[in-house]
Fold these 4 entries.
Entry 1:
Amino acid sequence: MSIKKILVSQPQPASSKSPYYDIAAKHDVELVFRPFIKVEGLSAKEFRQQKINLADYSAVIFTARTAVDNFFRLCEESRVSVPDTMRYFCTTEALALYLQKYIVYRKRKINFGLSGKLNDPQLMAAMVKNKKEKFLLPVSDVHQDDLTYLTEAGLDVTPAVMYRTVSNDFTPDEPFDYDLLLFFSPAGINSLKKNFPDFNQAENGVAIGTFGATTAKAVEDAGLTLSFSAPSKESPSMTAALEKFLSEQEI
């Protein structure tokens, strides 16, 4: 299989030192960063349909920058003033520091985890220590995580859908002449089928690589053939898997 043009269904890396660029130079391939999906925030009117009063909460849990941005946007649009006493619990330190975009950073009211996961021991310990608080958890419309461990820990947590994932549609004159497609979520596969309902993988000789078990399953459920997937023991990242796949094609 000859791979010359690759679609990476993610935004272009901000840093010029991304491994993707090294791979492109080494294997003489063209990389096009073009997300199949995009995130859009719910309007204040749509959010009100959930019957959630933002002013009722004394703590908020953040798992992504998108959650941070939409929480403060909806507070502003709903004319809810975020009190200085609000406590924040973030899955990473980088996310905690991102809060400086909206608030004055004070360590005493901001806690974060080390693993990037919501059930991180350090983050859970901090939340349990403040279990008297009423927690709000901004999530997307495709959120399916089991949060029973939070309630089992005695925490009063309310998930609130504040943003949604939608298809980032292709224009009629936008070329789709790729030899390899890289996907990072099931929503990306859904967008592929929506944009190109007559897509014939075998006829066009297109390879597909994925990141994450759910994305790999979505490829199979869509009747498509998976060429490679990450993470794995040999390829812990998408770039590692891509490097391995391209090297194997050149043998």
Entry 2:
Amino acid sequence: MTAASAPANSGRETPASIYLVEDEPEIARIVVRVLGDFGFTAEWFRTGAELLRRLRTRPPGLCIVDLGLPDIDGMELVREIRRRHAGACGVLILTGRGYTADRVMGLELGADDYIVKPFEPRELIARIRSILRRCEPHAGSPPPTAARVAEFSGWRFDTGSNALYAPDAEEFSLSTAEAQLLRLFLERPNRILTREQLLGERGVSPYDRSIDVRISRLRRKLESDPHNPKIIKTVYGAGYLFSSTVSWG
């Protein structure tokens, strides 16, 4: 394992800590150097086992995961990170696998974003910053986020722990991306929100389906029939609408 840091020139008092698991040393050196150039601290791990051991002592702001690892399938590693640290850190897949099925599976398992190698350094940094902004508890949020628990349609959502409770009290742990998406809906119920608003970014590619995958994951938790949703409705040609009364307490 190696670590790298750069002068705090990004405006952050404490630069975000990023863990990279990548078995190719040359690629790892490039990623670590790019992260350092933009003011992040980075730790590099060659195997999934090394990363999981480090996570037991100190979770980072973000994990960057390669899918082709020597000791564990990268998809299983993403699943394990989410199981152990749901909502505690972001997950970005950085891989040579460009197949749509892999991209969808990675997002389904809880990754916040997916980048295919070779990558453009500035795009990598932009994606990382976007994930970290979503992970910040109150970044860009309107006043309702001061309330810690939202109730809707018999469900309860704790914004402090990202725990979602069903009407029968069953608990679901949400990923960072899922929790951020649900929070946006809860803060703006009964309003049509575009995909750009939900992603929090301008100029979203029409081929970027990550938000649709996250919507699908939330529906499978919230809806009795995800194919005929009653809470998160699709407004064709416009976006999505959260159809429920929300109370904060």
Entry 3:
Amino acid sequence: MNKIIRTIRLIEKQVSTLKIPWVSRESERRDPYRVLISCILSLRTKDGTTAEASSRLFKVVASPQEMVKLSTARLERLIYPVGFYRNKARFILEISRGIIDNFRERVPDNLEDLLKLKGVGRKTANLVLGLGYGIPAICVDTHVHRISNRLGWVNTKTPHHTEEALKRLIPSAYWIRLNTVLVAFGQNICLPISPYCSRCLIDSLCRKQRVERWR
């Protein structure tokens, strides 16, 4: 078995009892718009805060058409206290108007068009493709970038370079779930500083590149 695939399966085993990221749980509804908005809310925000804000918001609106009817002030109140909530409220309204005006009220299902929406970067776009539409895509956030380098799978400096390198290394069947697995792993075991190597199932498979520890 390919070493990387073996490692992914062991990580999946380790995180099977842990809470997966909110956006991944939200994707079970198979609604690309909710995945998109949840991802925007999650940026630089703790997962529990994202979950609460998303739940409040989606009790009021469920589509771009409903979203643009909200005032900026009300949207801010609904999503507070996510990080940069004022900027995110503005982006969410602009994204929703863009979907209505330019994409026939439907979230785009390709990377090029998703990136045309103001405030949507590659991470968010790939998450929408994978979790929202089931289209193979690798979403590289800070956890995926850090862990892929730490394990020695890649030696890259930017998330975009990590994405391209992982596409060459990992079969497409694993692309969609890679972010969910590595984010849960990165939040609970493979921490940015002083990771819990002693309780990690892949300790013997890890090169421990760039591992920082408290001194």
Entry 4:
Amino acid sequence: MTRTPLLVLSLASSLAFAQVGTATPDLRDLQSSRNMAMGGAYEALGYGAEAIGGNPAAMSLFKRYRIEASGSWDVPQGYGFGTLGIVDATHDVSAGLSYHFATFGGAERRWAHITTLAVGYAFGELIHIGLTTRHHAIVGASNANSVTLNAGVLAKPTQWLTLGLSGHNLIAVYNRDITRYFVASVALRILEQLTPAFDLRVDFNEPNPRLAYHAGVEWLIAQTVPVRLGYQFDGIANHQYISAGVGWYTEGSGVDFAYRHELGGQQGQLLSLTLKLQLL
């Protein structure tokens, strides 16, 4: 009988820990403003250069040439990064190149330079595959100079449904900032205006798998002004966020802004801005 109260207390403490973040954002948070606003649910969307470091198969979903620059800063936590990405998806074989500079880690400060090269191929409109090579150069409390791989596949059975699966850091480099995880993603396109998306991240680096849930929605007003909302429950890094954003674009070029607020934990408040140019 004495085991029951102990079991209840143990379960309660585990749930409380899962709801309160104790670490700062990490290298999995290197996303554009659109993705930040949608709770980090982006791997099945494929509209921007974030596909280079997300699911590289998504680069070929839209036959366009894309250039993007993003910057994000979390004021209370001193976490920030800048990104420049270029994607050429005008042919069946697509290619992308991106560079990130990030500072993160709180008291255990690290500075990361990340260079990513991705290629993808489209089998018509139904199946898309992609492969990414990523180089990490990290200095500070945790050092790294390593190369790893991401890989992904997307299926688009209809114009309104996209399903994806990707693996990240598939080459083990034994660094706490570069861990292996997998993502299953889905996105819908409703009446050319409403885009809900969901990503599920799974981390097998502990005896029990850890999960992160990302959900978001985008409403495109007058084909020009996107309004976005998102929610993220990260059981891998123990964070919980709500987010929102707005943008403006014409023919794919424009600007996006996002705000992400942490619930509990370190009370993070992240601002993000993306400038993008897209050519048919």
